[in-house]
Fold these 2 entries.
Entry 1:
Amino acid sequence: MIGKRVINDLAILGGTPAFPEMLHVGRPNIGNRERFLDRVNDILDRRWLTNNGRYVQEFEAGVAALVGVRHCIAMCNATVALEITIRALGLSGEVIVPSFTFVATAHALQWQQITPVFCDIDPATHNIDPRKIGGLITPRTTGIMGVHVWGRPCAVEELAGIAAERNLRLLFDAAHAIGCTHRGRMIGGFGNAEVFSFHATKFMNTFEGGAVLTDDDDLAARIRLMKNFGFAGYDNVIYVGTNGKMSEVSAAMGLSALESMEDIVEVNRRNYRRYREELTGIPGITLAAYDESERCNYQYIVLEVDSAAGIGRDLLMAALQAENVLARRYFFPGVHNMEPYRSYFPQARLLLPETEKLAGRILLLPTGTAIGSGDVETLAHLIRLAVAHGPELHTRISRVQSDPAIRPFPARP
Ligand code: T4K
């Protein structure tokens, strides 16, 4: 009986893990399997595997219609989509980005010798703070890249205002944000362009995949050329390019995901509400809220663990991992603390106090269609128990860690 567990039952202290199988953050959502397999058979029958096939075109049209933009260009992943868009927009010199993001946001710039200039976040939204951008603009600045972290929209209007006033390009890393709105408008349609990720761990997946969304016809045409080696027809290369194409099997997966999207949102929303109920009143634990008056994909369950919890975020994570819950610290320690940025900008942390604080407090919990009924209650109970006994756990854990007879934390798979 999970509700009857006492501190000595915690797996970190040698008890039996609450979950026999590992629960992951980012377990893929699988849409309609039959529809997907039918399409795979069709792909094999027609022997058209990639290079702008029928399913890629259908998928692009479906995503463009969902978002309400003229162009969707599907790609092999969001990182390459970002790289190509950055290049197609003519960005150079310096681009202002948050450090509280997945490392790909900054790498997509650095990969092409553009300097990511890290801007602090607004602790209320976890997104880039427009009030801090002005002080970072130099004569070398060519753009701003916002990230809609957790699918919660950036301060889009403020960013657009700064970009217009300072003559900068505005790009959004919308890797988390398909299916989410800002003031009733779908994310994907803001700035010069936006980029979605359809990685396996995302709300909607194409195994690996991404897409660029834009209403700019010229930009879209350049991006299409660039993602296909610059080919403008057989034997006719008119531009420098790379290979960013999405395959047919990925697009088939994406079409099934589009068809199942509302069902997946429903499951995520139910999990989110259940977590919210179950975690209410635990001191020092705050669940990041979604604005339910907007459309949200509820893809991430994000906890902030502050000092009132009496248990550090990392000890709570270790306690959950011992229970077979692979809770994650996205985006610890902040991109500015990763190489090569840490070496390039050793002082960056002084300019990023909110990023530093948040990166030390965040813990993500499993959600999505792989979570079984009752799992959220069990998880919340474990968190409540660990927090209630935080100081005691702290004291006992060093003994546990040095005792070889006691089950060690599971290694990262
Ligand atoms: N911008 C932002 C803001 C992003 O968050 C990302 C990606 C990007 C850009 C770049 O998009 P892509 O180029 O990837 O399209 C994961 C994802 O790999 C990454 O796509 C994602 N962000 C990031 C937030 O999370 P890791 O290093 O945490 O992945 P990993 O291998 O630890 O997997 C996470 C969990 O999911 C594991 O516990 C295992 C489970 N899992 C994973 C896969 C791949 C499964 O159960 N099945 C699977 O097939 O980065």
Entry 2:
Amino acid sequence: MCGIIGYVGKRDAYPILIKGLHRLEYRGYDSAGVALINEAGKLNVFKAKGKVAELETFATDKDTTGHIGIAHTRWATHGEPNTANAHPHYSASERLAIIHNGIIENYSVLKAGLMQEGYSFKSDTDTEVLVQLIEYTQVDRHVDLRTAVQLALQQVIGAYAIVVLDQEHPDTLIAARKGSPLVVGIGDDEYFLASDATPIVEYTDKVIYIEDEEVVTISNDREVEIVTIGNVQKPPEIQRLEMSLSQLEKGGYPHFMLKEIFEQPRTLTDSMRGRINLRQDNISLSGFIDNRERFINAKRIIITACGTSWHAGLIAMYAIEEFARIPVEVEYSSEFRYRRPVIDKDDVVIAISQSGETADTLAAIQLAKERGAFIFAICNVVGASIPRVSHSGCYTHAGPEIGVASTKAFTAQVVALTMLALCIGKEKGTLSPDKYFAIVRELGQIPDKIERVLGQNKRIAEFAKMFMYAQSFIYLGRGYNFPVALEGALKLKEISYIHAEGYPAAEMKHGPIALISREMPVVVVAPQCGTYEKVVSNIQEIKARKGRVIAIVTEGDDLISKIADFVIEVPRTEECLTPLLTVIPLQLIAYHIAVVKDCDVDQPRNLAKSVTVE
Ligand code: M6R
């Protein structure tokens, strides 16, 4: 979703802003723009539809000088993706320019008021309304820019991260946030502002995370100053970034997604580091230890998440119910927040999010918090909004995930949730020590086993070519592997634009079986555990109708190998850990099909990495 970058300092701002926009590309966008104040004190704005490269081409012969500037990648909400709607937006007098991530929900009311005052608009965006409102407030109330920003934001309903540049103050940036992320980077005599730390990390590791309804003023000759929109002073809290530049590079891989798929043995080791003691077969999870009573006395656990994180939540439901015997409900955050859910103060709510910024999940947390529930976050991005508003949690430590299609973040979530389920079960006494130790030991083997699955990459790439013309796929799985089927289908849809549906294998008879034909490949996730025999019967039913089956099976499975058209083997493991292995071939299938179809794997159309608006 929209990406924001701002710079003020002694260096040329333009190259820093453009590099920052490239780093933010992974968030997803459809137009880009930049505003700079040159040495003569003129505020210039350049914008282009499409990729950042198109903005660079457009700006080649323009005046891109200046030591202060703001830049933006826009993911369209109000108004189609075109140059007029791209950010930055000028105010009426062209004295101010603004960039914005979020949605001003009451923009039409505010716009009507401004039109009555004689204002006109050049774009269809809510953002232009905000910059006009700020300028109107400045002029009408005779106040300085920061006060005008505070007063304007008091009238706004919705979410925003904004940065405002003022031609009259060519050394100062004013920024604010509510619901959309914003981080300040502190360098030597220079400052950065961004939606996340990725454009900042190469310049500094000192950051300040701006909180909701805070307005920050940064200027190269002054300390950072933070006040709320109600004008209460806030001391800036400087934190250290746990991110390195190399994590943001492709490292020799053609795409971030492939790099991230191949990183999984290491990311899972990182997720378990310091938490699993393999010599003692023990898990020590500080978020659990600190809140042991809440978990073991929980009457119910509600898991809330979106997309891939929701799939990880479904796997956790199987594990928590099996090991801890606590009822679990898994909710789409977007539905949960609006359906007046029954939430009790004894409930534990687990919110799962890679980015930690997903607007619906944040709102679901807010609602559950208001009802007195205990909120535990499983999050990848350190310092993101979701872990900060939660009572406790567990970072997944998968490292920055740049590919829009989530891969390593998913397996790290499953590992974190499995560790949590094991801790609850052990402490409640609902999980036998033998079983607990066996699973803990096996968790330690998972990175090596994933390595073995990755060894089949070339073979999977070859066979994926055969399916590039398929119009539709079905993915089937049962038990712990039903969510894997959903995840495999989502991966294919996202990056190859082929329609795909995930189903519990036994549900096939209740509808989808009507679709079976030679033209529609069926991917069956069928490791030898749980309801294996029943899944074999499902495969027989598909073959009897001339369907083509790609099966993910346990190593040495002679039965399915004889009936399926294509088989990918994964090592044997504990049932609850099978998703960590079976999902790997599905990630690779989606990746290779998208590559042969020449799709934009890392930045698929219409998608955003971090969905910060509803
Ligand atoms: O950052 P989050 O985990 O909260 O994001 C949730 C979804 O937007 C995300 O998982 C999305 O479905 C991915 N693109 C899936 O690959």
